[in-house]
Amino acid sequence: MPEADSKRESPENDPEHLARLLQIELAQKRATWKNTSARYSKIRTASFFFLFLVVVGSLLAFFLFFSRMNEERANRPAKTEETPPH
């Protein structure tokens, strides 16, 4: 009988046991990757939203700046050229 016990594989070397342990480890890693991916997705979305706000803000600032410059140019009195007396 001792030979039958020695031929039985220990739980550490049992292929089914190792496959189950590997599946559990991979499931844990997948859950970690999914959480990390979700976090980076939120950060990426927030970054694009911030970039969009910066672009819209700068376009608005340029529009206001150039419209005021145009108003000032229109309101500026016309220069009358006088000839200096001789």
- Uncertain residue ranges: none
H/E element string?
Answer: HH
- Share of helical residues: over 70%
Percent of residues in β-strands: under 5%
The helix/strand class is mainly alpha
Radius of gyration: 38 Å
Compose a concise summary of this entry.
By secondary structure, this protein is mostly helical. The protein has helices at residues 2-7, 15-75. It is rod-shaped, with a radius of gyration of 38 Å.
Describe the overall structure.
The protein has 86 residues and is mainly alpha-helical. It has a domain at 14-73. The protein has two helices and no strands. The chain has helices at residues 2-7, 15-75. It is rod-shaped and about 120 Å long. The termini are far apart. The relative contact order is 0.04. The mean pLDDT is 84.
Helix and strand topology:
Elements: H1 2-7, H2 15-75
List the main descriptive attributes of the protein structure presented here.
86 residues, 2 helices
